[in-house]
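Read as chain and fold; for instance:
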Amino acid sequence: MIGWILAVLGLFVVQTLLPNATRAASGGAEQRAYLKGARDVEPPHTVMSGRMARALTNMFEALVVFLPLAVLAVATGRAEGWATLGAAVFFFARVAYIPAYASGIVPVRSAVWGIGHAGLVMMVVGLLVAGG
């Protein structure tokens, strides 16, 4: 479970870089000036940087659920079985969520989000079922 916690946190760090990386990649002078300056006045996001910013916000919301479940699994000795499988499902769904969100195809994004949350449910089951 510790490995999945670290993997999810690593993914989170990568996601924190994506909104500004996509701003820089846009090549827009206003975006580049914002990134190079004091960032006092934020220009509107590009389409892609906006998507990456919203995906990051969603990751913040998901981490608030994932991390306590993962820590509880470790603390209660149930960091195996359903709990670990759920953590793996959550991680891989979150990896897939980034390009799914970037694609702009709402049903795909929503399906991947649902799979990630199914992983969280699996973690809850692992905590509640004796022997996890």
